[in-house]
Amino acid sequence: MSEPLAAEVARRRTFAIISHPDAGKTTLTEKLLLFGGAIQLAGEVKAKKDRMNTRSDWMKIERERGISVVTSVMTFEYGDHVFNLLDTPGHEDFADDTYRTLTAVDAAIMVIDAAKGIEPRTLKLFEVCRLRDIPIVTFINKMDRESRDPFEILDEVEQKLALDTAPMTWPIGRGKSFSGTYHLSDNTIRRSDAEEQTTSVNGPESDAVAGLLPENERKAFIEECSLAMEACRPFDSQAFLEGHLTPVYFGSALRNFGVRDLINALGRYAPPPRDQIADTRKVAATDEKMSAFVFKIQANMDPNHRDRIAFVRVCSGKLQRGMKARLARTGKPMSLSAPQFFFAHQRQLADTAYAGDVVGIPNHGTLRIGDTLTDGEHLVFKGVPNFAPEILRRVRLEDAMKAKKMKEALAQMAEEGVVQLFQPEDGSPPLVGVVGALQLDVLKARLEAEYGLPVSFELARFNVCRWISSADKAELERFVTVKRGDIARDLDGDPVFLASDGFSLNYEAERWKAIKFDAIKEYQ
Ligand code: G4P
């Protein structure tokens, strides 16, 4: 491996922020980008969120709802590191994309609202991170507001997520009296009105700390902070990298306090691009040969061009502008003439991208989600999974004459990852599956705008979907035959079992012991 390649890989950190809506992800993103100089003024990301993402406002529903449907990537440099922040939609509605994005990161920041603790969306996204043991840095946000007891929050993380916690800082005061953090490992403090300044102190009892707190809060702080130092787990790098332990920082994104801790933690503790598993071998990020996979397709980013951008995570080697790559699924060569980097506002042609980087590749439907690109080698990454949809609907076409066109359009949408498509074995109309209701609106709007196909959705009698497999092929065949009315095929022709609810699913799983019912399917 050449030195410059290894050095470029070592300085990259590719991460996402996971949180429940309103916990402060947008505010934090903005402050992170501010550190990286990617934006000039705080307020730009927020303004963009409020005003809608102009770059992607091609679709009416985005304008109507005032949200961005796009999961974007933002690259910035800070210190010696290059950070690739993969954004996941913060709105109540979310999509398969949100899950898939987490398969393209090496670490995540989990933002928790100090008053609310672990909320449902955080839990869900955490579970996806856990599938790949992604290391997580925790940020307890909004300490400047009324908040819960820090020990209680740590306990909740441990209980609900089965994740060990190692507090790295301790809040000095809470709500109105929040005035800084105490750094547990080196007995220093930072004041929220002068974060740049680190002051060494003799311990939680020191006068410098006392001076920051109202008199009636001092005793409690000393007790709490001493207890945190004695009783909490120390940070353990190995446990963090294995996804078993999270370092915890307290702060206020709004006041831009504690954000520097996070960015430093990512630089210092988070892993560089991880090795990726392919069908033929393990691919090290420092491997000279280029390899990459597609984890997201974004259509119509530019309303004038009706282009499709495939978001590709580079896994090894150098992805260079103008190179010819091999598309594993077809075996055909593909010229990468205009790969792009994304910054907070603009795109820029990418001359060279390294492992961990995310580039956008404009194409006209050649690339699908899960596709592997190499510089010639025959290998396929197993990295991008399908998650069982949580909402299933039957698509009703208003003009029955256009059935064939609709079949093609739905297949195209499924390849792009807008929805998942299931063809029932009994020949009834196709079902679409999504994890967030917004995806249905996107599908409807796009079928109408791009294919001239007005559709509506009907409730299906199914609400649960599982991929089925078995080591005993005959038994699988028997199951598929017996349950024909409840079996459908996905886009790749793999069988799924459809059930009305979790109860019936469990009932069948009990009866058919040799059949595996999976909520996740790896691509390819
Ligand atoms: P999200 O992307 O996770 O949905 O959250 P976002 O950053 O939009 O923050 C949600 C709300 O919480 C915003 O208030 C934001 O200003 C506020 N907030 C974020 N971080 C902090 C913090 O550290 N302290 C306090 N006190 N508030 C915080 P909003 O009223 O919805 O919007 P705005 O009108 O204030 O912009």
From TrEMBL:
Its family?
Belongs to the TRAFAC class translation factor GTPase superfamily. Classic translation factor GTPase family. PrfC subfamily.
Q: What is this protein called?
A: Peptide chain release factor 3
User: The Tr-type G domain covers which part of the protein?
Assistant: 10-274
Which GO molecular function entries does the Swiss-Prot or TrEMBL record give? GTP binding; GTPase activity; guanosine tetraphosphate binding; translation release factor activity, codon nonspecific; translation release factor activity, codon specific
Identify the GO cellular component terms for this protein: cytosol
The record ties this protein, via SUPFAM superfamilies, to: EF-G C-terminal domain-like (SSF54980), P-loop containing nucleoside triphosphate hydrolases (SSF52540), Translation proteins (SSF50447)
Q: Does the keyword GTP-binding apply?
A: yes
Q: Where in the cell is it found?
A: Cytoplasm
Record carries keyword Nucleotide-binding: yes
Q: Where does GTP bind?
A: 19-26, 87-91, 141-144
The protein's UniProt keywords, in alphabetical order, are: Cytoplasm, GTP-binding, Nucleotide-binding, Protein biosynthesis
Taxonomic source organism: Georhizobium profundi
What Gene3D superfamilies does the annotation carry? P-loop containing nucleotide triphosphate hydrolases, Peptide chain release factor 3, domain III, Translation factors
GO BP term (any one): regulation of translational termination
An example Pfam family from this entry, by short name, is: RF3_C
Q: What does this protein do?
A: Increases the formation of ribosomal termination complexes and stimulates activities of RF-1 and RF-2. It binds guanine nucleotides and has strong preference for UGA stop codons. It may interact directly with the ribosome. The stimulation of RF-1 and RF-2 is significantly reduced by GTP and GDP, but not by GMP.
